[in-house]
Design goal:
4 strands, two-stranded antiparallel ribbon, 29% helix, 178 residues, two-stranded antiparallel sheet
């Protein structure tokens, strides 16, 4: 069962993840499988460019200024008051008897804030794996290309046809996300 505080809309995670990173080596799944399981594509898209999605207009991971630790915190804790849900199971304890892991808050503290729980919980090493990928393969990169698409969807995917025909995947702009 998903928990929603303050009626906030659910967005899905942060992170595209392709390839095996140091953190992903410690998990049974690769970073792309974690990304797909968490349904991050719902808001951040396969390419990390963000734009309109199920939970609203997600920020671009390609243009993010967050560092790895800040990305880990965002995926772990979500962003109260936005569509970004949290993905670490014990991020917000049910009462003050357990130490809070996020922003010093427990569930009762969140009554007046919109905060969604992700569709699945991720383990700390899974969260680190996707954060590693964002920092090394998405952050600061230009528009996605055929190599990015093929790495995500696999060789021969029809999703990558636009790139094979000389096209590109336009990244959202403020005008397209309003």
């Amino acid at each position: 069962m998903k928990r929603f505080i303050g009626g906030g809309a659910a967005a899905f995670a942060i992170v595209l993840s392709i390839g095996v990173t140091n953190a992903a080596e410690n998990t049974a799944e690769t970073a792309p499988a974690i990304y797909k399981r968490a349904n991050c594509v719902g808001c951040h898209k396969w390419h990390g460019g963000g734009g309109g999605g199920y939970g609203g207009a997600a920020l671009s991971l390609r243009k993010t200024e967050l560092d790895k630790d800040q990305i880990i915190e965002t995926v772990k804790c979500g962003r109260p008051g936005t569509g970004m849900p949290y993905f670490l199971k014990d991020s917000y304890p049910a009462d003050h008897s357990q130490p809070p892991q996020c922003f010093g808050l427990s569930w009762p503290d969140l009554e007046s804030m919109a905060l969604a729980q992700g569709g699945v919980f991720l383990k700390p090493d899974e969260i680190e794996a996707v954060a590693d990928y964002v920092v090394t393969h998405i952050k600061g990169k230009g528009d996605p290309d055929l190599a990015d698409c093929t790495a995500f969807f696999g060789e021969g995917s029809s999703a990558c046809e636009v790139f094979k025909k000389g096209g590109h995947h336009a990244m959202p702009t403020p005008a397209t996300t309003d």
